[in-house]
Amino acid sequence: MNQDQNVKKDKEISFSLALLCMIALAVIFIGGFGIFKISTQVVFLLSIVAAAIVGLLSGYSIKEIDGFFLDGCSNVILAAMILMSVGAVIGSWIVSGIVPTIIYYGLSILTPATFLVASFAICCILSFFTGSSYSAISTLGVAFMGIGIGLNINPGITAGMIVSGSVFGDKLSPFSDSTNLAAAVADANVFDHVRSMLYTTIPAMLISAVLYFIISMQYRTVNLDMSVINNIKEALAANFNISPILLIVPVFTIVLAVKKVPPVIALVSSALLGTIAAFIFQSGNYDFKTIMNALGSGFTINTDIPEINKLLSRGGMLGMMGATALAFLAVGLGEILQRIGVLSVVLTKLNKIINSNAALIVTTLIISLIVTILCASQYIAIILTGQIMKNAFKEFKVSRTVLSRTLEDGGTIFAYLVPWSTTGVFITGVLGIEVFTYAPYAFFCFLCPIMAIIYAVTGFAIFKEKEEAEA
C-alpha cells in the first residue's frame, strides 16, 4: 500500500494534463457519437487509448496501465453476470408468454375517458418488464400516437406521455441496462439500487399520472378507435396462450427482490421459471429448441404486425453482449482515469463547491446534464459522472445507493430532453415529434431530478454509508 502511494507521488499528474485528457475524451465522444456515429464500444476503446497515452506521458508504463484496466474489468464481473442473466430472463419471459400476457391485459384497460392515464400506465408496465424504453416507444408508442391523433389530442402531449411512461422502466427496471450500469458504476447491489430509486421514481410517476388524468378529462366524451389495439391483441392471442397464471413468475421475481436474494440467483431462478412456464403453456406454439434458445440467443417472431415483431424479437444472453462489453470498457476506462490521477485532479477542483450533502447531489445532477449535452449519451453521463463523484460521496459518507439513484435521476433522464442526444434523435425519428415539442409534457423527466433536489435540500432519503433504504 505504501509502495503504491509512493508511486502515485512520483507520478502525480498536472491539472493541465488532466484537463487535456478530459478535452481529448470530449472530442472523441462528440466526434464518435455526434459526427461519425461510431458504435459506443469503439468510442470507448478509442477513449482508453487516449487515456493510456496520457498515462504514458505522466510516467506510467504500459504494464501498469494494462494492470489498471484489468483491475477495472475485475470489478465488472458481477455486473456482467447480471446483464447476461437479464438477457436470459427477457428471452424466457417472451417465449413463455409472460410479456405478451402483460401487454394483452394492459391494452384491455384502455377507455376513452382515461386514454392518457391508461396509456401512461401501460408504457410504465411494458418498459418495466422489458427493461427497454426504446421498445415501448417504437412499438406501442407508435400505436398510441396514432390513437392520440385520431382523438385530436395535441401530439406533443401524447408523445410526452409515451416518453414519461417509457422512461419509467428504463430507469427503474432491474432488467434495464441503464439500471444495471448505474449500480455497477456506484458499486451498489442492483436491488438495493432499485429500492433507493423508489424514493424519487414513485412520487414522480404518481404526480405524472395525476397531471395526465387532469389533461385527459377534456377528452372523456370522445369515442376511442380500438382497431390498432385490437389488432395487436389478436396477434398476441394467435401466437401465445395468454393466461393470468403466467403472472405468478413476475410476482415471484418481485418477492425474491424484496427478500434480498442475490441478483444473479434471483434472475437465473426467474429465467428458469420462465422456461418451465414456456413448456407448460406454449409447447403447442414453440418447440423445445426455440424455447431453450430463447435463453441464449433470444426469441424471434414474425407476424403481420411490425410493432409486435419489434417488441418481442429480443432477449437472450447474446443480446446483452453489447452492454456487457460496454461495461468492461467503460469501467476499465474509469479505472485508468482514476489510477493515473485524472479524476482525482478534477475532483479536487470540484470539492471547492461541494460543502454539503445538498451540494453533493445538485453537483452530480449538473455534471450529468453537462456530460449529456456534450457527449449526447446517457451511458457516458452515468459512467463519467459516477467515476468523478464516487470519492466525494465516500468523503461525505453518503450511501452508494444514493449515488446510483442520482446518476439515474440525472444521467438516465436528461438524455430524453437533449435534442441532439442519441435518445432524443431516436424518439424524434420514431414518433415524428421534436424534443422541444414533447419535453414540456414529459412530466416524469422533470419530476425525478426535482425530487432528487428536494430530498437533497431537506435531507430526506439521503442515506449514510452502510445504511440501507427500505422501500
In short:
With 471 residues, the protein is mostly helical. It has helices spanning 2-10, 15-35, 40-57, 62-74, 77-95, 98-107, 115-130, 133-138, 140-150, 155-172, 177-185, 190-216, 227-239, 248-258, 263-281, 288-296, 306-312, 321-339, 342-350, 357-375, 378-395, 400-414, 422-431, 435-438, 443-458. The protein is globular and about 70 Å long.
Topology:
Elements lengths: L1 H9 L4 H21 L4 H18 L4 H13 L2 H19 L2 H10 L7 H16 L2 H6 L1 H11 L4 H18 L4 H9 L4 H27 L10 H13 L8 H11 L4 H19 L6 H9 L9 H7 L8 H19 L2 H9 L6 H19 L2 H18 L4 H15 L7 H10 L3 H4 L4 H16 L13
Which residue ranges are poorly predicted, with pLDDT under 50 across at least 5 consecutive positions? Answer: 1-9
Order of helices and strands: HHHHHHHHHHHHHHHHHHHHHHHHH
**Count of beta strands:** 0
Provide the helix percentage.
over 70%
Please describe the biggest sheet, giving its number of strands, its sense, and whether it closes into a barrel. Answer: none
How many DSSP helices?
25
Shape: globular
Return the average pLDDT rounded to an integer: 86
Distance between the termini: 39 Å
Strand content: under 5%
**Structure class:** mainly alpha
Rg, alpha carbons: 23 Å
